[in-house]
């Protein structure tokens, strides 16, 4: 059912200074077909995709052709990698959607359909909320809904499932198929190979900005020499036996934690958990189930909660404002949306280093060196990190965000979906690093993730959030109960 | 001299036959939303204009500030000059009641009532109202506390208007003036109608409306655009800008405001007459007139009341003499003196004059420090404060000037000029019936002031009135506050 | 913010009442601090001490300040604003009389100001640093730099005196020639338009550069709609505050314009009252202005909260 | 830098006059008749018969100093307040910081200046302080309104989480985010301050009504606008140049390269449209 191409990139070359971001990439978006763009983090997927939208990095020199001939002037639907940033904080969700609907000649019905397709129809009172009142995954789906509302014939989805639990991700894959069936052409950028396999008709594999292979999924993804596939079970699961978890002291002890949001909506009910030094508790749950909220509670970013949080037996002040340097350093949180956690104007490296200066009393030069080293360890070239956040790829930012928290040497670290936007290798190296810290420095980890592989790889225990309560889940089937749990 | 006479003389140029009818709109700087129509409460020019349109005094001032009979036909002193018999003319109030001696006594007693603290009270002070009587309805016999040769001045005093006996409520005032009341919005407008029964001949215009506009440029613009036919108190610059244009007529009322500086004669450095004389000699009066009045006025000679009765015009005109000034200062050991000069934007030109005096004094080696005070309380502040201050005064008879400001007993003696012998001269003059001898006495008093007085009079400002070309008969020879100033019963719209 | 809007408004109204109460006290203290009193001013250029004393007695100014304030406050509790010291008229009359023209001027000016300022801001923000931007900015700023009185004189000279299109003053009352309002309104508009437009421009430039505006454009929302519907609301919060201040400036008396065009409004009353040390009138105005301000600020803050909803900032 | 050219050109003349002017004039000369042209006076004479050129040369410094001082002071006081109010999560602290200002607001700035200045003869310096303080509530409100949104961004949370100091958060992040709004406000306020001084002088408080001061000149000489326009036009032009120039410089300094709006670090045709 492939008709004339809707959009095409031919021999695209994007250079910033000496650096080549994309090097001679060509791809075509055909009606009724899903083209997937895969490749390691920083390989130029987003850049390529944005080129399709006519957007380029600041001061980039561009060659090659981008043709939107087939799109017939209609806008191209876009689901950016950082959905949080593209939602107007001052307008209610309803206004945002209705406005789009009106522009594209749709009514309330169109809005309702879009919400249903984007798996948002269950979120209660969605239309009256402001974007910042949504969970990461919900925001992502909201942006998807916007893209649907534009009725675009070409949709570019950049990591559309990073914030989604497998079940939802699966449904989204189905949605993409449906869209394709309606004759839409999709360009799908993803690390989620399951998703790609499920939905893509054609896969373009990028590496260092070059298209190394193009073809049907199985061919491209299963061909020999697949550097970007995850090791089935990372070796790092093997842990030194001499540190029996049970013996280790309890670092973090949470009891009766109940959190609510301004509307009064209770998100967490009587949640209790305890973390020993050197232990990793994986936290899973449907999108919108309250994982981030829990993490923010622990980090002191969501003071509107009751219950006690003990750090080494000491009660932890509810708000970051009332936590001294030690405490701030002791409990760290890695934001789900790495992009919006960094200031636009300062080099990422400085911002990472600054944390060490403030919380570990390092001198700026020392901190800078340390930051560079750490970033390198996480597989992020410090040279890249010398750019402001706008100049980094999604995955790079995620690692930078992680580094920013790790550099202060926390005792407890809450990671919120830090592997979502990462290719298998990078993810593996990060997990290795975390595991290492956990085992050597006795770092206690609360690992919020939708990613089964990552969870198996790292977690000692797995717990699942559903309707505000924490359910311990057997490590065997961490995601087993999710079909049952009501979607958030 | 009969008032009509003087008026006619002045109006010679415009002497076309008066035309009857029309509404005359006159602009004055109003007194804000607190204005009242109580004629005894007059304070601003606007008040005076309103009062004289509605009411009459027994006498008023002619161009030379000599009393001119109005409601009074004439006055007869007793032998001791301390009893004066005043005859009233046949005049009626707007409601038809005749003006009687009783009304006169009532009005004067009301003014003199200490509790009310009217401005005119000071002027009536010589009269012993308790003892004064009304032998018949058309005759008033005033008994005075002391001889007072200038008694008629009192009858013409600022604010000494005659109101019907018993009047307390002035919301719709009844008077004997040329116009009768129609409506009044405080701070905005007063509308009056011609009073056909006016004893001095009914006005030519049907209606007179006195409008308030505090801002000078507003008055000028309204006049230029034909929103009014008469605008009081225009700036010299405005006058010069439009004098030639023919869009408006400009009338300069000479000698309307004395401009000067007061020196406190009882405290250093001005307790030394030589320092005062030094100042008399160091000022360049023409520069002051040009700079502070932008030329709209004439230079003074350190005496009050230029052009009015008893003014010693014979005295030589002082001009700047820096050597003389320096010499005097040297004698007085006052070289390089630092003096603070008080001034305030309370009236046009005051602050400018202060600035200019500062420069001029600098040329004589004196340092003057100008202190700009609050305009609201200025006159009170300089009455006893400071040593040197800007000063101005509207026109009044020389006698009033002396009695109010230059006697030991004077209440507003800003120069602190207290000289028993000078007081004696004044008393003597007041009990001298013979005009010639009295003139001589006044001359002696003023020579004394000219030599060593505390008042440096550098000029006399013109009062500038603008009027629409079609408004005829606006008197020119009428200093502010005199009979023909702001007199709307003799003008007409051509 | 923790408070729910309603609770917040209630608290603010209470605070506002406190402020309205505080203002007259402040003003009373200040007026008392002024040199001289109503008696001295009334005496004018005839400051005969005896007369001043008499006036003082007549005006009952010889009593201690606290006592006088207490009396005034007492009357206020009965809804009485007292009587003017100078003319003896009820203060309420003063205010109501002067309020009419002031309200008229303010209303007219504001209704023109908002669209004009926003429009100019939008124009300037179309392309930062572009010819249009520079032109708009330069012109409005140049006008802004011309003070009301100069501008008034200029406009009057041209449109009233040279061309004779408009009456130069409202002397004798606006009722007679409504056209007399044109010039004052224009003069009053001239400067706020610029300052407001500048704020609109600044906010718009930031908002238009924000990712969500770019995204809206990508979603095919027409640029103008993005400007008005997506960027403007985010830009408005400070503008609204500025407008509130402007509205208050207009309501609390625009002395220069009132004097130039003879529109005796609250500003004139205020000036006269201060000059005459007419404490009751000044106090009355203080109460009036206090109330106006509190209400305007409340409205502005409400609007600002609506326009800039806060995420849950960690407390 | 081309984009600075216009602003600089406009600011240069007034600024140079303001700084250098007073050095070029000698002692006072005898007065002429007010509002006359010619007669050895290049720009004619002013309302007090003084040489306008001389007044212009003298009158820049007070204007610039008072206006700048007042504005700077106003911001020095208001900005920390506004930022503190925006950054504190507790609404009662916010009220505590901002409501008292409203009382100040409720006394119209002119009345305030009028009252205080009549009560205590301030002189230029004092007047600058007064004008500055009178502006504090307005600045605080505008700045606060703009800051609230910026202060509740995730970046700020992250900075807190990483122990950033209050000052860095407030000025390095929040104030920086709203700098355009602040610049726009400050730029216009500069002129506002200047004419508040002039109006005060016109009402007889603060600087003397015949001082050499561009703003005061524009006011006092307007009576002679038709006799001798220079006395008004020249100072007015200078002030206009000053204000327009400063603001354009602000604009130029804050302009994004090429005036293009980068969409989250990405260039977009859409944003340039
Ligand atoms: N403005 C810029 N200047 C210089 N280099 C840039 C700029 N923007 C991006 N890059 C670099 O270009 C490379 C490709 O970026 P891009 O965002 O396309 O990667 P990606 O494939 O989307 O990675 P990810 O999967 O992590 O999102 C990255 O290494 C990034 O550091
Ligand atoms: N400020 C807010 N006001 C009201 N409701 C909110 C607010 N923030 C989040 N919520 C709701 O609270 C629930 C939990 O949000 P949270 O971000 O913790 O979910 P999550 O588990 O992190 O989801 P995801 O996996 O998509 O990130 C969601 O349903 C969301 O809609
Ligand atoms: Mg990417
Ligand atoms: Mg989340």
Automatic annotation (TrEMBL), chain A:
<feature type="domain" description="ABC transporter">
    <location>
        <begin position="252"/>
        <end position="488"/>
    </location>
</feature>
<keyword id="KW-0547">Nucleotide-binding</keyword>
<dbReference type="InterPro" id="IPR027417">
    <property type="entry name" value="P-loop_NTPase"/>
</dbReference>
<dbReference type="InterPro" id="IPR050319">
    <property type="entry name" value="ABC_transp_ATP-bind"/>
</dbReference>
<dbReference type="InterPro" id="IPR003439">
    <property type="entry name" value="ABC_transporter-like_ATP-bd"/>
</dbReference>
<protein>
    <submittedName>
        <fullName>ATP-binding cassette domain-containing protein</fullName>
    </submittedName>
</protein>
<feature type="domain" description="ABC transporter">
    <location>
        <begin position="6"/>
        <end position="233"/>
    </location>
</feature>
<dbReference type="GO" id="GO:0005524">
    <property type="term" value="F:ATP binding"/>
</dbReference>
<keyword id="KW-0813">Transport</keyword>
<dbReference type="InterPro" id="IPR003593">
    <property type="entry name" value="AAA+_ATPase"/>
</dbReference>
<keyword id="KW-0067">ATP-binding</keyword>
<dbReference type="InterPro" id="IPR017871">
    <property type="entry name" value="ABC_transporter-like_CS"/>
</dbReference>
<comment type="similarity">
    <text>Belongs to the ABC transporter superfamily.</text>
</comment>
<dbReference type="Pfam" id="PF00005">
    <property type="entry name" value="ABC_tran"/>
</dbReference>
UniProtKB/TrEMBL annotation, chain D:
<keyword id="KW-0813">Transport</keyword>
<keyword id="KW-1133">Transmembrane helix</keyword>
<dbReference type="Pfam" id="PF00528">
    <property type="entry name" value="BPD_transp_1"/>
</dbReference>
<dbReference type="InterPro" id="IPR035906">
    <property type="entry name" value="MetI-like_sf"/>
</dbReference>
<protein>
    <submittedName>
        <fullName>ABC transporter permease subunit</fullName>
    </submittedName>
</protein>
<feature type="transmembrane region" description="Helical">
    <location>
        <begin position="186"/>
        <end position="207"/>
    </location>
</feature>
<keyword id="KW-0472">Membrane</keyword>
<feature type="domain" description="ABC transmembrane type-1">
    <location>
        <begin position="60"/>
        <end position="250"/>
    </location>
</feature>
<feature type="transmembrane region" description="Helical">
    <location>
        <begin position="126"/>
        <end position="151"/>
    </location>
</feature>
<feature type="transmembrane region" description="Helical">
    <location>
        <begin position="63"/>
        <end position="89"/>
    </location>
</feature>
<keyword id="KW-0812">Transmembrane</keyword>
<feature type="transmembrane region" description="Helical">
    <location>
        <begin position="101"/>
        <end position="120"/>
    </location>
</feature>
<dbReference type="InterPro" id="IPR050366">
    <property type="entry name" value="BP-dependent_transpt_permease"/>
</dbReference>
<feature type="transmembrane region" description="Helical">
    <location>
        <begin position="227"/>
        <end position="250"/>
    </location>
</feature>
<dbReference type="InterPro" id="IPR000515">
    <property type="entry name" value="MetI-like"/>
</dbReference>
<comment type="similarity">
    <text>Belongs to the binding-protein-dependent transport system permease family.</text>
</comment>
<keyword id="KW-1003">Cell membrane</keyword>
């Amino acid at each position: 059912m492939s008709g004339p191409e809707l959009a095409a990139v031919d021999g695209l070359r994007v250079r910033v200074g000496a650096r080549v971001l994309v090097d001679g990439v060509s791809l075509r978006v055909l009606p009724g077909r899903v083209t997937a763009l895969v490749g390691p983090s920083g390989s130029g997927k987003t850049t390529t995709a944005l080129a399709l939208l006519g957007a380029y990095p600041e001061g980039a020199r561009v060659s090659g052709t981008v043709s939107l001939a087939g799109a017939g002037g209609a806008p191209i639907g876009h689901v950016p990698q950082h959905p949080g940033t593209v939602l107007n904080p001052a307008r209610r969700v309803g206004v945002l959607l209705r406005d789009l609907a009106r522009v594209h000649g749709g009514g309330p019905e169109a809005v309702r359909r879009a919400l249903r397709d984007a798996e948002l129809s269950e979120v209660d009172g969605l239309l009256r909320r402001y974007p910042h009142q949504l969970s990461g995954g919900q925001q992502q789906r909201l942006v998807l809904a916007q893209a649907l509302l534009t009725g675009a014939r070409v949709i570019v989805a950049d990591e559309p499932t990073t914030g989604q639990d497998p079940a939802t991700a699966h449904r989204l894959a189905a949605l993409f198929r449906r869209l394709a069936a309606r004759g839409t052409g999709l360009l799908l950028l993803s690390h989620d190979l399951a998703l790609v396999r499920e939905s893509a008709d054609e896969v373009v594999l990028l590496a260092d900005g070059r298209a190394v292979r193009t073809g049907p999924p199985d061919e491209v993804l299963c061909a020999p020499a697949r550097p970007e596939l995850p090791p089935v079970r990372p070796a790092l699961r093997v842990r030194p036996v001499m540190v029996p978890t049970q013996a280790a002291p309890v670092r973090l002890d949470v009891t009766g934690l109940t959190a609510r949001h301004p509307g009064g909506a209770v998100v967490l009910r009587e949640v209790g958990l305890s973390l020993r030094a050197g232990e990793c508790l994986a936290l899973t749950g449907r999108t919108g189930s309250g994982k981030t909220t829990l993490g923010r509670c622990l980090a002191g970013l969501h003071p509107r909660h009751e219950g006690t949080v003990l750090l080494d037996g000491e009660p932890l002040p509810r708000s970051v404002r009332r936590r001294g340097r030690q405490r701030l350093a002791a409990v760290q949180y890695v934001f789900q949306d790495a992009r919006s956690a960094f200031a636009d104007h300062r080099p990422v490296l400085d911002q990472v280093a600054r944390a060490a200066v403030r919380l570990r009393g390092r001198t700026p030069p020392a901190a800078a060196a340390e930051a560079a080293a750490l970033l390198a360890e996480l597989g992020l070239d410090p040279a890249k990190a010398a750019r402001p956040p706008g100049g980094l790829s999604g995955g790079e930012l995620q690692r930078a965000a992680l580094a920013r928290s790790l550099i202060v040497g926390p005792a407890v670290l809450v990671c919120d979906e830090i592997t979502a936007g990462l290719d298998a290798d990078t993810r593996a190296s990060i997990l290795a690093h975390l595991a290492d810290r956990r085992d050597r420095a006795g770092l206690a980890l609360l690992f919020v993730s939708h990613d089964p592989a990552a969870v198996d790889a790292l977690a000692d225990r797995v717990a699942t959030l559903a309707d505000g309560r924490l359910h311990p889940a057997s490590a065997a089937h961490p995601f087993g109960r999710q079909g049952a749990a009501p979607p958030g | 001299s009969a008032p009509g006479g003087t008026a006619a003389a002045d109006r010679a140029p415009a002497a076309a036959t008066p035309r009857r009818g029309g509404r005359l709109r006159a602009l004055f700087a109003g007194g804000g939303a607190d204005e009242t129509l109580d004629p005894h409460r007059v304070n601003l020019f606007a008040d005076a204009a309103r009062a004289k349109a509605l009411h009459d005094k027994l006498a008023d001032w002619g161009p030379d500030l000599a009393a001119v009979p109005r409601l009074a036909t004439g006055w007869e002193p007793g032998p001791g000059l301390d009893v004066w018999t005043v005859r009233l003319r046949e005049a009626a109030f707007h409601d038809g009641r005749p003006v009687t001696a009783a009304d006169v006594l009532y009005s004067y007693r009301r003014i003199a009532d200490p509790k009310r603290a009217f401005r005119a009270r000071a002027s009536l002070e010589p009269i012993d109202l308790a003892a004064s009587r009304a032998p018949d309805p058309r005759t008033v016999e005033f008994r005075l506390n002391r001889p007072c040769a200038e008694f008629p001045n009192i009858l013409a005093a600022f604010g000494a208007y005659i109101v019907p006996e018993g009047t307390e409520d002035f919301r719709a005032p009844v008077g004997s003036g040329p116009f009768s009341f129609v409506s009044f919005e405080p701070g905005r407008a007063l509308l009056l109608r011609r009073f056909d029964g006016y004893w001095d001949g009914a006005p030519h215009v049907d209606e007179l409306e006195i409008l308030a506009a505090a801002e000078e440029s507003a008055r000028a613009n309204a006049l230029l655009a034909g929103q009014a036919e008469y605008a009081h108190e225009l700036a010299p610059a405005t006058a010069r800008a439009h004098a030639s244009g023919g869009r408006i007529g400009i009338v300069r009322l000479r000698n309307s405001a004395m401009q000067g500086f007061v020196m406190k004669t009882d405290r250093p450095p001005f307790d030394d007459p030589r320092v005062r004389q030094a100042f008399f000699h160091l000022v360049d009066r023409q520069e002051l007139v040009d700079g502070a009045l932008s030329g709209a006025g004439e230079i003074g000679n350190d005496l009050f009341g230029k052009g009015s009765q008893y003014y010693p015009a014979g005295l030589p005109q002082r001009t700047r003499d820096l050597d003389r000034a320096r010499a005097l200062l040297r004698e007085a050991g006052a070289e390089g003196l630092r003096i603070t000069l008080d001034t305030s934007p309370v009236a046009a030109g005051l602050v400018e004059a202060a600035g200019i005096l500062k420069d001029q004094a600098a040329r004589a080696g004196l340092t003057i420090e100008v202190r700009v005070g609050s305009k609201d309380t200025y006159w009170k502040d300089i009455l006893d404060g400071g040593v040197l201050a800007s000063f101005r005064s509207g026109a009044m008879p020389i006698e009033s000037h002396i009695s109010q400001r230059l006697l030991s007993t004077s209440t507003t003696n800003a120069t602190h000029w207290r000289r028993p012998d000078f007081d004696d001269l004044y008393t003597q003059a007041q009990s001298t019936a013979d005009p010639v001898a009295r003139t001589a006495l006044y001359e002696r008093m003023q020579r004394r002031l000219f030599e060593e007085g505390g008042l440096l009079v550098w000029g006399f400002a013109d009062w500038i009135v603008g009027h629409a070309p079609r408004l005829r008969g606006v008197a020119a020879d009428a200093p502010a506050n005199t009979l023909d100033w702001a007199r709307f019963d003799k003008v007409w719209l051509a | 913010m923790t408070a729910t809007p309603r609770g917040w408004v209630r608290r603010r109204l209470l605070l506002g009442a406190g402020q309205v109460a505080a203002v007259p006290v402040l003003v009373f203290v200040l007026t008392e601090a002024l040199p001289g009193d109503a008696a001295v001013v009334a005496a004018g250029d005839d400051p005969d001490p005896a007369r001043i004393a008499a006036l003082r007695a007549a005006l009952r100014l010889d009593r201690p300040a606290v006592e006088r304030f207490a009396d005034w406050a007492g009357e206020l509790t009965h809804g009485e604003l007292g009587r003017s010291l100078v003319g003896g008229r009820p203060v309420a009359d003063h205010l109501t009389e002067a309020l009419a023209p002031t309200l008229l001027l303010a209303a007219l000016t504001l209704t023109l100001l908002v669209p004009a300022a926003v429009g100019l801001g939008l124009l300037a923000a179309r392309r930062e640093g572009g010819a249009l931007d520079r032109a708009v900015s330069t012109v409005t700023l140049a006008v802004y730099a011309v003070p009301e009185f100069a501008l008034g004189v200029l406009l009057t000279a041209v449109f009233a005196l040279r061309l004779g299109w408009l009456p130069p003053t409202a002397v004798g009352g606006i009722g007679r020639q409504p056209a007399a309002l044109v010039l004052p309104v224009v003069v009053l508009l001239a400067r706020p338009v610029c300052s407001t437009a500048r704020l609109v421009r600044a906010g718009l430039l930031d908002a238009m550069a924000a990712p969500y505006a770019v995204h809206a454009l990508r979603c095919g929302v027409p640029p103008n709609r993005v400007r008005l519907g997506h960027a403007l609301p985010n830009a408005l919060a400070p503008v609204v505050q500025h407008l509130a201040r402007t509205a208050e400036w207009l309501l609390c008396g625009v002395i220069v314009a009132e004097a130039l065009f003879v529109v005796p409004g609250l500003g004139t009353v205020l000036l006269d009252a201060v000059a005459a040390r007419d404490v009751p009138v000044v106090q009355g105005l203080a109460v009036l202005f206090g109330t106006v301000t509190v209400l305007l600020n409340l409205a502005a803050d409400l609007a600002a909260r609506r326009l800039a909803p806060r995420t849950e900032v960690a407390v | 830098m081309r984009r600075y050219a216009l602003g600089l050109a406009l600011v240069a003349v007034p600024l140079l006059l303001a700084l250098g002017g007073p050095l070029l004039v000698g002692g006072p000369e005898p007065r002429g008749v007010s509002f006359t042209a010619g007669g050895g006076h290049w720009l004619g004479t002013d309302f007090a018969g003084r040489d306008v050129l001389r007044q212009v040369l003298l009158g820049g410094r007070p204007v610039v100093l008072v206006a700048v001082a007042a504005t700077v002071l106003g911001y020095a006081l208001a900005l920390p307040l506004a930022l503190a109010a925006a950054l504190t999560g507790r609404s009662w602290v916010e009220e505590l910081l901002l409501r008292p200002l409203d009382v100040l607001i409720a006394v119209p700035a002119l009345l305030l200046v009028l009252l205080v200045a009549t009560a205590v003869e301030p002189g230029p310096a004092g007047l600058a302080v007064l004008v500055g303080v009178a502006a504090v509530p307005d600045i605080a409100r505008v700045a606060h309104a703009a800051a609230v949104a910026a202060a509740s961004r995730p970046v700020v949370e992250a900075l807190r989480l990483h122990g950033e100091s209050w000052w860095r958060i407030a000025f390095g992040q929040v104030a920086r985010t709203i700098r355009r709004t602040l610049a726009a406000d400050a730029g216009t306020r500069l002129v506002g301050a200047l004419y508040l001084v002039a109006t005060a002088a016109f009402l007889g408080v603060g600087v003397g009504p015949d001082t050499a001061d561009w703003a005061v000149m524009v006011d006092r000489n307007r009576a002679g606008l038709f006799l001798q326009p220079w006395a008004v036009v020249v100072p007015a032009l200078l002030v206009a140049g000053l204000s327009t120039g400063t603001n354009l410089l602000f604009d130029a300094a804050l302009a994004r390269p090429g005036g293009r709006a980068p969409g989250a670090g990405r260039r977009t045709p859409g944003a340039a449209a």
